[in-house]
Amino acid sequence: MTQQHAATALLQVALRRRLLSMKEALSLRHVLAGCDANPQAIHQRLAHNPAQVSSETVQALRDLLPTPSQEHIGIYRRLALLGRGASGQTWLGVGDRGLTVLKTLDAELVPNAHEFITTLAPLIGGDHLYLVNYIAVESGSDGAITIIQHYRSGRDAAERFHVKGEASEARALTILRHAAKGLAQLHHLNVTHGNLKPQNLLLDSDGSVALSDFACAANINGPRSEWTPLRLQHMAFAAPETGAAQPRSGPAADIYALGCIGYWLLSGEPPFPGTPERQALQHAGADRPDVRIKAPGVSDITAKTLLKAMQIDPAARYTNARAFVHSLERNLEMLKRPQNNSDKNGQQKEGVSSLMLSEPD
Predict the structure, then answer these.
(1) Which of 10, 55, 56, 154 lies 20 to 30 Å from 141 when distance is taken between CA atoms?
(2) Which residues contact 232 (CB under 8 A, 6 or more apart)?
(3) pTM for the whole thing?
(4) What is the pLDDT of residue 37?
């Protein structure tokens, strides 16, 4: 690990969380040059505030650094806090393979550590193109589980939206296609994601997408977690069966969530806005929303694809993630075709309109 890892990691995280301007980050980079790799040395340097950054910003930066007791987990070292969520804390860290992401789950989320680690075993050490691959899973003396995964540059879909707003239909379909391929890979390993949301779709600088955050993952044929999406306050993209009195989940729930994310990518809103409780009610019984109401430029065929993915009855959705992939790929191909579908005699050519009558698997 180079001496600048800790300082660079801190500034990267601060920029990502919009705690700093680029000008401030460059100023602090100069200030922190030569700091020891130990985050505690950065604590001390920031306390003197030689870059004339506001005291509030300095405190926010210091809050991102680990305390001495937090710094090490096995052979890995925490560098800066990426975020806190309902399931735990996520850190940018470093190990013998370079930069990593370390997610520490709250102990109550994983009552059976052995069972959870067994569920994640197929993801450890793999090389899956559309999944963020896991390096290891560590179990602490306090019962907390820490998942160590490869670090991927870029930003998640929520961050992309904050910068660029709604996606074009072609870009949205590309993101969904990659994510659906990730689901197909995950389900092939007999694992369901269980917590799909825009923050868990990582977009690399080359445009590729990978699914991340398998904190709520479960074996397709095994017992389900008692942590429902409603308790996690993630109802904006959760299938109705996952928020029922007796929660059920599975591959069909992942497909539903991805359909909701597609609606959000194109419209800028979840299909059912409101409080988590109101969202749960609407997911379970409201008419399915047509994305063309919010985004009139979206093609009929893509609107029907999302409607099929978001059906209340799991059996009415796509039969599997691969079928969803095929539909998205067909839609992308349709977008590439010439927009004029009439020949010289005014007869309609075979094209988009001829496929709008149905939305096949």
Answers:
(1) 10
(2) 86, 87, 195, 216
(3) 0.82
(4) 64
Residue 222 tokens read as: 């095994």
344 phi and psi, to 5 degrees?
A: -65, -25
How do residues 133-182 score in pLDDT, each as one tens digit? 889 888 777 767 888 998 887 889 998 898 899 999 999 999 999 999 99
Q: How many CB atoms lie within 10 A of CB 50?
A: 13
CA distance 178 to 212: 12
What's the average model confidence in pLDDT over 173-192? Answer: 95
Most confident range (mean pLDDT) of 232-246, 258-272, 347-361 is 258-272
What average pLDDT score do residues 229-252 get?
Answer: 81
Greatest mean pLDDT among 37-41, 81-85, 238-242? 238-242
SS3 annotation, the chain: CCCCHHHHHHHHHHHHCCCCCHHHHHHHHHHHCCCCCCHHHHHHHHHCCCCCCCHHHHHHHHHCCCCCCCCEECCEEEEEEEEECCCEEEEEEEECCEEEEEEEECHHHCCCHHHHHHHHHHHECCCCCCECCEEEEEECCCCCEEEEEECCCCEEHHHHHHHHCCCCHHHHHHHHHHHHHHHHHHHHCCEECCCCCHHHEEECCCCCEEECCCCCCEECCCCCCCCCHHHHCCHHHCCHHHHCCCCCCCHHHHHHHHHHHHHHHHHCCCCCCCCHHHHHHHHHHCCCCCHHHHCCCCCHHHHHHHHHHCCCCHHHCCCCHHHHHHHHHHHHHHHHCCCCCECCCCCECCCCHHHCCCCCC
Look at residues 168, 169, 171, 167 and name the one whose alpha carbon lies nearest to residue 302. 169
In what order do the strands lie in the sheet containing 72-73? 72-73, 76-84, 88-95, 98-105, 145-150, 134-139
The answer to whether residues 148 and 137 touch, using CB atoms and an 8 Å cutoff, is yes
Our measurement of the distance from residue 246's CA atom to the centroid of its chain's CA atoms, rounded to an integer in Å, reads 26
Other CB atoms within 10 Å distance of the CB of residue 292? 17
